[in-house]
Amino acid sequence: MAKKFNIQLNIWVTVNQSLLPVLVWVHGGGLQSGCSSQSIPRIYNGTNIIARSLQQQSVIVVTINYRLGVLDDMYSTELIQENSSEWPTAGNYLYYTNKSNALDVSNKIVQNMNCSKGNSEMTLACLRNSSIENLTTTYGYRQTKPIVDGYFFHFIHQQQLKKENIIKI
C-alpha cells in the first residue's frame, strides 16, 4: 500500500538529544494544494523550526506530504475498505458521504473528460490514459471538511464560542 499511496514523512532531529517533544506540522491548502516543502522555507522547513526552537527548548519536527484533491478522493473508499478495522471513523472525513452526490461528481468528471465510453472498463481505461493535469483541472476545486459526528469532538466549536465556553490563555 505504501507504494500505491506514496505518502511521505519528513523528520528533523537535533543531534545528541533524547525525550524531546514532537511537533507535527501538516501544511495548509484546504486539502487541494500545498506540500511540506513549499516556497515558504521559514514556515515549512524543519531545519529552520529546529533552529528557532533551540532558543527555548529543542523539538523534533515531523512534516507530512499527503494526496490532494482528486488524487486523494480516488483512493479514499479503497483505503477505508482495506483498513476499516484500523480506522473505525474513517468514513466521517469524506466530504461526500452521500453516495448519490459522489456518483453525480464522478459522472460529471467522466462526461467533462469525454470518457463516457459505454461501459465501465472503457470509461476507466479512458480516465487512466488521461493526463494528471486534465484530471485535476476537470475535477476543479472542491472544499472538503471533516464531519462533526460527536465521536471525536463531542461539541461543535462555533456553539462553544457563542457560549464563550473556552479556556482563555
From TrEMBL:
Residues 8-71 form the Carboxylesterase type B domain. GO terms for molecular function: carboxylic ester hydrolase activity. InterPro entries: AB_hydrolase_fold, AChE-related_enzymes, CarbesteraseB. Keywords: Hydrolase, Serine esterase. It comes from the Eukaryota. It holds the Pfam family COesterase. Belongs to the type-B carboxylesterase/lipase family. This is Carboxylesterase type B domain-containing protein. The lineage of its organism: Eukaryota, Metazoa, Spiralia, Gnathifera, Rotifera.
